[in-house]
Amino acid sequence: MTDDKAKDKLKGKAKEATGKLTGDRRKETEGKTDQAKAKAEGAAGTAGERAKGLKDSLTDDGR
Question: Is the separation of the CB atoms in 12 and 35 below 8 Å?
């Protein structure tokens, strides 16, 4: 996970915790949403890297 995604996930956790402590369900939900978004972006990046690796493996000319 990149630093930006890790920061987004941490920010989401903080929002969620703040929402729980204050009883603000909207803030809690925003935090959960931020965390899910960071996780999804990380998964998309990982899938892209794997696809690139597969392409490189298939086009390897033995060097």
Answer: yes
How long a stretch of residues is the chain?
63
User: Which two three-digit tokens encode residue 33?
Assistant: 């949403």
Alpha-carbon gap, residue 35 to 32, rounded angstroms: 5
Pick the residue with more confidence: 25 or 4? 25
Nearest to 39 by CA among 11, 17, 6, 13: 6
What predicted TM-score, i.e. pTM, was given to this entire model? 0.66
Instruction: Give residue for tokens 């009883």.
Output: 23
Query: Phi then psi for 23, rounded to 5 degrees?
Result: 75, 15
